[in-house]
Structures are given as C-alpha cells and as structure tokens.
Design a protein that fits this description.
The chain has 21 helices and seven strands. The protein is mostly helical. Strand 1, helix 1 and strand 2 form a beta-alpha-beta unit. It binds flavin-adenine dinucleotide and iron/sulfur cluster.
Length: 508
C-alpha cells in the first residue's frame, strides 16, 4: 500500500528523516505550496520566492532520483490551501491511509498535522545536534538556562574545536576579541548572487503577481535556491569572509549590509546546507591556518550554540511561548518598521536593507530594531510578527526565542541575564550611522538628543522594580540616581514627547 511522505518547504534535504524512512519504489512524496503558509504573516516577497523556488527545484531533483512526487503549486486550481488539506487530497487520490512526516519547526503546523484523520507518524527532525529530549534533559533542574553551558556540551558532543577534553586554544569563547568596529575603507567580500534559471523566473513572476504588495523588494533576486548554489555560498564565505568574521561580527556600516557575515541562515534553515557539515568545514579552515581561532570559534558557537539552544528553548517552552509579555509592553509597532520616513539613521538603514535584501545581521536585529522595540515598549507579539515576516531566514522555532527571549525580555529572562538595551553610545561605537543622523548621539537630552539616549533611561526608570537589583545593570541605576533631578526630569520628559509624537504617526 502506498504511503504518503510529507516534505515541507523547510525540509529540503535528501537526508531528512521522512525520506530516509520511505520506500522510493512505492511511496509518494507530497510537497505543497499552500496559501496558509504563504499568508499567516505578510512574508517578504524575496522570502516567499526563495522558498517556492527551492521547493520546486528540490522536487525536480527527487524525481530525477527516482521518487514519485505529488507537487501542488500555489496556483493549481485543485489546491486546498493548507498542508492537511493537501494530504487528505493526495490520500483520497491514491487510497493511502498512512503518512510519514518529519516534525515541523512550528507548533502551529504540528497542531494542524495532528488533526489530520490519517495514520500519521511524525519523526524527529535529526538535522539538529540536540534532540528535544536531549535539551529537556539538559534543562531539567537548572535554575538558569544559559547558552554558554549548553554550548560547551555541544562542543564536547561534536568534538568541534576540541583538543582531547579541552577547548582548542585553552578557552571556550573568544568573544572579547570579536567586537571591533568596522571602517568604510575596509575590503568587503561580495556575496554570491545567482542568475535566474527557468524555475526561479517562473516563481518570481508568480510572487510578483500575488505578493507584490507585501513589504519588501522582490528584485533584484540573487539568492541560492538549490544545494549546489548554497554550497557555493559556503565556499565563498570560507574563502573570503571567515578570516575576518570574528573581528567584525558586531560592526555595522551604512550601505554595507553583509560585512563578513555568512548569509547562510536561510539555507541552513530550509535544509540546503547541513549545520554540522558547515561547522566541520569551518573547523578545517582553521586547522589549515586559513582563519584564526576567534573567527572559527565565534562562527561555530552561533550554530552549535545559539542555533541549537534557541530551538531547544522553543520546543521546551511550548506553544504559548509566543504570547509572553512579561514587561507588559503594549505600544503598537510604529510605521517606521514598515519603511515610513525617519530621521534615525540606524533604524532607517536597518529597515531599508531589510526591505531590499530580506536580511539584516544579528547586531542590527538585536541592537537597532530590537533595542528600539524594547526601550520604546513595543508590543512583543507585533515585533515577533514583524521579524517572522521580513527575514528570509525566519521560521518560528528560531525567530521567536530570538525576538521574545533574547531581544525583548518578554519571557522574563528565561535565558537572557539582562535586557539588551543600550543608549546611542553602543550604536555609535559599532557603526558609522550617527555621523549623518539628524539626532545628536552626544546630546543626552533636549530636542536633538538621540532617542536611544532618552528611551534607555525611560526604560530603566519604568522597570526599576524588576531590574534595579539585577547585578548586571544595577550600576546604571546608581548612575541614574546620581544625576540631578532636573536632568532626569528633562530626559523623561523628552522620552515621553518622543513617544507621543511617534504614536501620533508623525515622523520621528
Ligand atoms: C530579534 C532577532 C530575530 C532573529 N530572527 C532570526 C530568524 O528568524 N532566523 C534565523 O535564522 N536567525 C534569526 N536571528 C539570529 C541571527 O540574527 C541570524 O541567524 C543571522 O543574522 C543570520 O545571518 P547570517 O547567516 O549572515 O549569520 P552569521 O552572522 O554569519 O552567523 C552564522 C550562523 O549562525 C546562526 N546564528 C547566529 N546567531 C544566531 C542566533 N541568535 N540564533 C540562531 N542562530 C544563529 C545562523 O544560522 C547563521 O547563519 C534573530 C536574531 C534576533 C536578535
Ligand atoms: S544618533 Fe541615535 S538615532 Fe541617530 S543613528 Fe545614532 S543611535 Fe541612531
């Protein structure tokens, strides 16, 4: 009897668990482009085009390899619009009653699959190093969930950058070497861009017609859409960017969105690259003397540390995680996140490149758009939807803990030891944005003061009860208390005025 083998749009690996368990001679692979997935948030057109093109090319490759694939296109007249609907349609066409699937990366879809009245087997997604059970075991009984401890366990388990049972170079973490600001005369590698093949051209047309109104530029489109192209991105990164990746990991430059970042998250997240393979290649480059240890360690930590860790958190915490709002922030997402004019150069840059590229690097997400959201008290659920919509790499298992946990402290500090808030100083130190800004980063209050300088204190002041005893920021409360009352008043008043103006829809 034929069995249905479900392959989702972020499961595009021949090695995915459901395909490994399936019988090529007999089973039917089901892949479907459905409205429910393209519309649950207003995804960036580049993200939609990337996923649909990668799905179509993956299905073609499976067919070449001898698989039977039932593929539903978005514009198929029979398309039921949901993944469960497509499974039921294929079941009634073939008489199949059994389905094998790999666990989706989103509670929403897991719950939807569980309602399908077919005999469904859901397999663990073992493209990750830590299974859910591994993470739960690690988390059990711990008072604090800290990435650094988890990461060391992943290093030991994979043997990456290990010399016996000791970390290579005698330290687990070289982050203190990874905070150099960039300067705009640096040589920066050019990211790989790919010509449109027929599949990509066809998908771009479809996306233009259906999703052209969403926030984000579809053209120019040069993302990798198959494993061979993603491999070329990896090669290019190791060759041209990895050696400086560590040093400039936190830097930001106007008009230079990529710096020395790998641009690999989207490819890793849909399955075009394998995380452990990528890390081994980076380790080999370090062993060959091509990249320094601070670069290799910094990169590998992002993948076997942060990437695995946030996934563990997402599944450990359950479906309600995305609703958390421990700081009670309720301000609506201001229009500047959707590209409305702003005089704040840092936000303008981060949003403009997000619109053009469906990409911003980590520090832009954390210390510009995230930091602003937090100090301005924006509703974390609205920020969560925004991040999920606008980045090509955004899937809930990785986006939600980063947004709600790391960036917005909406989970009350489940894994962040302090809120990631800063005044304009941090942005000024790490970027060239402030020099051309209409606001003055040096001014601490007054009409021209950098809004981060005002809102930073406003945040600390309104959350005093929660944070004043936090050892990592207690000194800031002492600084605040030492300021004269008039100055404090001017700062809070300036912050209130700024927020009022922003809420009214006026340009800030
Ligand atoms: C508010 C916020 C939202 C985010 N949303 C997403 C998201 O939807 N999808 C996503 O993949 N990442 C997300 N991140 C993490 C990180 O910003 C991106 O992974 C990274 O910017 C992708 O660019 P890159 O591939 O050039 O990364 P690089 O800087 O080259 O890093 C290498 C790889 O490490 C991994 N990585 C790095 N940091 C993290 C992290 N904090 N969590 C998980 N993986 C990490 C990624 O796979 C990345 O490709 C978010 C971070 C923040 C602060
Ligand atoms: S002055 Fe403030 S608002 Fe302007 S770019 Fe610098 S940090 Fe951003």
């Amino acid at each position: 009897m034929v069995r249905l083998v479900l392959v989702l749009g972020d499961q595009l690996s021949e090695n995915i668990a459901a395909l490994r368990q399936a019988d090529r001679a007999q089973d039917l692979v089901v892949m479907a482009e459905v409205a429910a997935e393209t519309q649950y948030v207003p995804h960036h057109p580049k993200k939609i085009a990337f996923i649909l093109a990668a799905m179509r090319k993956f299905a073609a490759r499976l067919r070449e390899d001898g698989w039977q694939v039932a593929y539903t296109r978005l514009d198929d007249p029979e398309n039921t619009g949901t993944v469960p609907g497509e499974l039921l349609r294929r079941a009634s066409e073939t008489g199949a009653t059994d389905v094998v699937a790999t666990r989706p990366g989103e509670w929403r879809l897991i719950e939807a699959l569980e309602t399908v009245p077919l005999d469904l087997e859901i397999l663990e997604d073992d493209r990750f190093i830590a299974s859910h059970a591994d993470f739960d075991r690690w988390a059990e009984g711990r008072k604090q969930l800290r990435m650094e401890n988890f990461y060391r366990e992943m290093r030991r388990r994979t043997g990456l950058l290990m010399e016996g049972d000791k970390p290579a170079g005698g330290k687990w973490n070289f982050d203190t070497e990874n905070r150099k600001p960039a300067s705009d005369d640096m040589f920066l590698p050019r990211p790989s861009r790919f010509e449109h093949d027929d599949t990509v051209a066809e998908v771009l047309e479809l996306v233009e017609t259906r999703f052209g109104g969403n926030f984000g530029q579809l053209h120019p489109f040069g993302l990798a859409t198959d494993a061979a192209q993603a491999e070329a991105v990896l090669e290019q990164f190791i060759h041209a960017a990895l050696p400086a990746f560590g040093d400039y990991q936190d830097a930001m430059l106007a008009g230079r969105p990529f710096l020395y970042h790998s641009l690999m998250s989207a490819y890793l997240n849909v399955g075009l690259l394998d995380p452990l393979d990528v890390c081994r290649r980076v380790e080999t480059a370090w062993q060959a003397g091509h990249a320094p240890l601070n670069a290799a360690e910094g990169f590998i930590r992002q993948i076997i540390g942060w990437r695995e860790f946030v996934r563990g958190i997402y599944f450990h915490e359950g479906p309600c995680y995305v609703e958390r709002n421990e700081l009670g922030h309720e301000r609506d997402l201001p229009a500047l996140y959707w590209g409305a004019e702003t005089g704040m150069v840092c936000l303008r840059e981060a949003v403009a490149q997000t619109r053009e590229e469906a990409y911003a690097h980590h520090i832009q997400r954390l210390m510009v758009t995230g930091n602003f959201g937090l100090v301005a008290g924006i509703d974390p659920a609205q920020l969560h939807e925004w991040y999920l919509a606008v980045y090509a790499d955004a899937f809930e298992w990785v986006e939600a803990p980063n947004t709600l946990g790391m960036s917005q402290f909406a989970d009350g500090g489940l894994f962040a030891s302090k809120p990631y808030v800063s005044s304009g100083n941090y942005i000024d130190r790490m970027s060239d944005y402030c020099g051309t800004c209409r606001y003055s980063v040096k001014a601490k209050h007054g009409d021209d003061a950098c809004p981060f300088n005002l809102l930073y204190w406003h945040f600390l002041n309104r959350h005093r009860a929660r944070f004043s005893s936090n050892p990592r920021i207690a000194t800031m409360y002492r600084t605040w208390d030492r300021m004269d009352a008039q100055r404090r008043q001017a700062i809070l008043h300036g912050a209130e005025n700024f927020l009022k103006k922003m809420d009214s829809g006026a340009q800030v």
